[in-house]
Batch of 4 targets.
Target 1
Amino acid sequence: TNLFVINMNRLVLLSSLLLAPTSAFQTVDPSPKQALEGRRKFLGTAASIVATGILLPSPASADNKSFAPGGTLVDYEVGVNVGNTEASLSRNPDNSNVVFGQDYYYKFGTAPTWIENGNTDFPKTMPFTVSQQRYDTLKKYGERVLKGVAQVSSVGQKIESNEFSEILDGQAPEYMIRPMGLMANGFLASENTGTTNELLLARWYINEIALDITDIKNAKSKQDALSAFSAAKKATNSYLSLINRVITSKVGDKLELI
């Protein structure tokens, strides 16, 4: 439909040009023979333009192309839980309701898999940051992040006692969502690397923690709350596992998972 509209617009434009008086194109009146030859050439060019537009649609209009929220044109299906069926469905398709707008979904338009404890298959590599930067970052944010992790873990007790409607919203400061993001910045990016894909990945996990907790709070049943809590724990542990990969003995102790 969009392609048809584009081609119709081309035809309208070309028709207006063809019907325009000669003075609109030239300042000197041509001879009748020159005018006829000029019109023939113009018609030939116009026909080629229209035919090209019909036979060769732009890549963006092809059925197998999609746009990620950040504007990247990709040739695969895009969706908030494409790639991970446990990803929160409460994420807005345009990523407008998360704490860190520029995350993995923002760039790639899909949801990454969870990271199992000790698994280094995904991501394949980690960005380089100097150990002093990681040491300073862990010293500054480590304790706060662990408090947030403990707060996430305590949500399970609220669910078991059927008090999940009284749980704090996922973006409440008690979960330390922003300190988690700041720690990821110090571990997974530097002035030399800029914003890395691994940092975007960490932000996705952090955003999922907040979304999942809000899903728990808004759950209509205990089963729904438990499902969201399971995802929240996996998101938390994935984030911690990612950070732990770059916590060496020179940096400090690895973070304890839920």
Target 2
Amino acid sequence: SISPMPSPPFHLPHSVRPLTVPASKSEPEEDVNEASPALDAILRSNSGGLNKIMCANRGEIAVRVFRAGTELGMRTVAIFSEVDRLATHRYKADESYMVNAGETPVGAYLGYEGIIKAAKQNGVQAIHPGYGFLSENADFARRCEEEGIIFIGPRSETITQMGDKVIAKALAIECGLPVVPGSDTATSDVEDAVKFAEEFGMPIMLKVIPDTCSLY
């Protein structure tokens, strides 16, 4: 179930507000924390037509996403699990919704279908995954693409490719990037490891791939 709960607008606590660094006597006083007008213009232009974003995460990273969204003039949306109903991050967004009721505290943030449902029901245009949880989940990114929601991160195809060590290395070689010497394919044969060690010397490193490994 999805329970809406409007939240107060984001206010930066006094304790973490930026301080102005005093200028030296030989230089004119200047607020070094003032954003560059050019940088500000770039950030706002790249936000395009987005006016409502969700962070599919909790805690510190969610608060940071909401702060950035607020600074760019966007409306922000938080999600929370049942046990996080009093968590700080949900009160730092303009809106907050409980997702995946009945799930474990972690499971609620991994159930991407429930998160996407909440996003669509509340007019969210883009979802930022934060870090951990769904940030490297290609299926989540793909479902966002299918539902017409912008995934703030790599394309699902890129996440899939970079999540496979063998594919990622092959792509790096294809792009002409230097790589650490290693086996071109995964193997589960001990003899392959022995031949590799004889050619490149010891020590060698094994990188685990499901049911096999790569040698470096």
Target 3
Amino acid sequence: RPLAPRPHRLAQQWPAAAMATGEPSWLVLPPPVPAGGGSSSSSSCCVFSAAKLPPPPQRQLPAVGGGNAEWNVYRCSEGKRCEAADCNLWHSDSERRCKDFARGSCAKRDCKEGLHVALADVNQIVTVDLDKPIEAKAVLQANKGKSVNERARVVRLVLYGFAWVRRQLLRDIFEVFPLVHEVMLPDRTRDANLLVAWCDLIEELDCAKRAPRMREIIFSDGHAEALW
């Protein structure tokens, strides 16, 4: 799916001054939102303890599949070029669901025909603090130990401490959760440069293959922006 950045689109949606920083978009990132609200006067990235992490904004989970029992059962002829956010067909093998399972007739434990996951079960959230790489990798390893069908139940990632230097870890995280639909950044305020950086990141990490359903990023105020 075409998850490339859209600078021309962003330029229409955001003030031009926010885009004209003179620095690469992935370097001009806003500082985290301090716990308890307010803004930070420091340009350096704060490191929060677990007790001080700002809570994620309240937001309803994505509705997966739109009630279509055969969602992600058949292949989309457009493949990664498909731009329909509500497409009910699969675009990468990573998100493909087993047709027989969707129809209630497959009980193979090692099925090679796709994911065995019910749409109603794609409702889990995983939280990762990227400012603590050791703990973040522990979360990653714990989930890698689960079956792909269990991991496919994760629909939202809540990420603290996002920075461009963490992109390798993010690549590994996205590869583990094939049906993740959105990323929430509770400690990052909405910013044009940050949005462009994420669009760049999505393309670099080839999320069209790893996490083809990821379509939105949510900032600390609960506002969502499309990534493609």
Target 4
Amino acid sequence: LPSPSISFHLLPSPALLVHSCTSCIFEGSIDLNMIASAANVALKAPFSVSSTASPSSKRSPMLASPRVSRALGVVYAASELPGSGVEKEGPNFAPLKDIQAIMQILPHRYPFLLVDRVLEWEYGKYAVGYKCVTINDNFFPGHFPQRAIMPGVLQVEALAQLAGIVMLDPEAGSDSEKNNNFFFGGVDNCKWRRPVVPGDMLMMRVDVTKFNPRFGICKTAAKAFVGADLVCEADLTLVLAK
């Protein structure tokens, strides 16, 4: 026979005692599920009680300890509520220049081509483009193994490549006549505001502040963003190769 004192806690609070019987005479068996069901109805709480004894156990069901279980809730991010349609949107901006067009302009190739799409562009004026940062980028295994962060110098390199698209003449003629090689002439007032990590979209804008096509010198004000956060900015000077 069980102890003459039985108590259940159907809620996690130790202050709530659902059932107590200080002196009971047991002539048969006690239906624990019936007791728990009555308590659940009274408390309107989503709990259930079941016996831990297996059918093959020699222990009497009336001696088995009740097991209290609670249904698990589902937590959603603010942008992932059911029916929000976020899975159909995403950052898939229509490109003005896709990666194939970019590769016809820039001489860079894997693993150093750091502009995926150009969204806005005007020769000698400005450009807007972006790079999708993923864990598959080849620099992450070494920078850093324990915490993947896009190197700041590569953020500046990505901005310089976008600036190169602005300064390279699209009407230069045949491929053999084009001069699409350019170099850094200077980096001034460079600042980094926060880390760029895998999963970020590095959105970039470069505005030409001074351009001399005759001498092949272009100065730009460049900024990179992740969402609304400014992550990198610099004044870049590029020089067209001769």
